[in-house]
Design a protein that fits this description.
Elements (H helix, E strand, L loop, with lengths): L11 H9 L5 H25 L4 H8 L3 H8 L7 H12 L11
Helix pairs in contact: 1-2, 3-4, 3-5
Length: about 100
């Protein structure tokens, strides 16, 4: 089947621009921050499950609480960077690295 013109398709980037504004605008920056928090929670949950750990077991390894692990996995805000770094280091033997991108 030959692909014909896709006049009605919108790229994901165009969708984000239309829905949240261009990069650098307040609405878009709020979306991007929320998305990064979501990604971090998903990474944490995937690693925890990959290691066969419950939230409680991971919390004990890292010196935090099951509730705190749950909050991170469920996209909570106001999570301390030092605690996140400790969870990845002590809980998984991994180092968390951050990137700073230009807007």
């Amino acid at each position: 089947m030959k692909n014909t013109e896709n006049k009605h398709l919108t790229s994901f980037q165009d969708h984000l621009d239309a829905q949240y504004g261009l990069r650098g605008t307040p609405g878009r920056e709020k979306f991007e921050e929320g998305f990064e928090a979501f990604r971090l929670g998903v990474m944490l949950q995937e690693l925890r499950k990959e290691k066969g750990l419950t939230q409680e077991q991971l919390a004990v390894r890292c010196g935090t609480t099951k509730n705190y692990i749950s909050r991170i996995e469920n996209n909570a805000s106001d999570i301390r960077l030092s605690t996140i770094m400790r969870i990845f280091k002590e809980g998984f033997g991994r180092q968390l690295r951050l990137n700073v991108d230009a807007i």
